[in-house]
Amino acid sequence: MASPAVNAFDPDHTTLTISPAELREMRDELQRFLMGYRFGLREIETKIAILREEFLLLHDYNPIEHVTSRVKSPDSLVEKVQRKGVEADFDSIRRAITDIAGVRITCSFTADAYRLFDLLTAQDDVHLVEVKDYIAQPKANGYKSLHAIVSVPVYLSTGRLDVPVEVQFRTIAMDFWASLEHKIYYKYDAQIPSELSESLRDAAHSAAELDARMERLHREIRGGGIGPVRSV
């Protein structure tokens, strides 16, 4: 006996009939699609963990305060697909949306953010797709962070899959500011009052000054540091 169909409705109130088998197939296809991003995320997390341990062993110094990561939820992915007007097929989504998998690396100092960026992207199996240096050139609202889209290979039973992962590098002060700005942004539904926007920019400037001051103190304490640093 065939399984009963499920009735759904589109925005124009046209009835769509979807069987349980079709729903399961859609679910399984989405899970397979996101699986590659989860594996790509693990590859980057492993590389970062190795760099962190090496710094501790060889330099007695940990440039990483903490690491957070995520793969976009199905709801979040659907919302972005609709907002960007991307065709609703997996090939189009894979080409158009590069931040489905994301890692945020919070560092002690600005120099550490650039150093880790250099070390990660210098690895043979990490391909740098795009970089946006919002540390050197902050956004108008004061936001600072180093954003990189990298591609990393994942080897599945079906063959090699090159997975894009967004990696963000920022300091503790940058992360604190961005977290607060994010909460305010959603509280005001993206319509932040001008006087509050100005206060946020002032706070971003103060955070940058604190970063610079603490980094100078750190260099005085450690002397020559642990290697050259450049900006992207």
TrEMBL record:
Ranges that cross the membrane: none
CDD domains hit by this protein: NT_Rel-Spo_like
Pfam families: RelA_SpoT
Domain RelA/SpoT positions: 69-192
Top-level taxon: Bacteria
Protein name, per record: GTP pyrophosphokinase family protein
Organism name: Microbacterium aurantiacum
Taxon lineage: Bacteria, Bacillati, Actinomycetota, Actinomycetes, Micrococcales
